[in-house]
Task: structure prediction
Amino acid sequence: MLQGRCLPATRFDMLIPFPGDEIPSWCVPQGSVSWAKVHIPNNLPQDEWAGFALCFQLVSYTFPPELCNHEIDCYLFSPNGKQLILISTRRLPPMDPCYPHLYFLYLSIEQFHDKILEDDYWDGVEFSLKCYCCHSLRIFSSGCRLVCKQDVEVFQDQTVVSP
Result:
């Protein structure tokens, strides 16, 4: 079914200057600012999971922008609040002050599939984004999505460019 299709096996992220204040519609908006909870349906076979897409809207108030390359950490938590793992630490490039930026983070399920199943947290997991450097980076909103193999197929079919 996914023959010839490529699923990312590691995490990747990107920071995008964004002229707006909304999380993209393909992410489920979250009520919390820096927490993103992903519900995993019980009827979804585990071999259909590809990963998690997280999106956070960030605004830096550092001026000049080169003064601080904000360092952010992303953590994975179980639904009962137990921290499972530190997923990612990243220094962000300089950001235009006072303008929203979207920080996207894709996490392959391969990175922590066994940990989620080992501790029986497969019905839902939570991600938290934290910044500990200079306190001039604010997180305004978050969104997330469980990425399934079917999502990858649809995305790749929509992005195929004809010669």
User: Anything to note?
Assistant: The first strand starts at residue 12 and ends at 17. The mean pLDDT is 77.
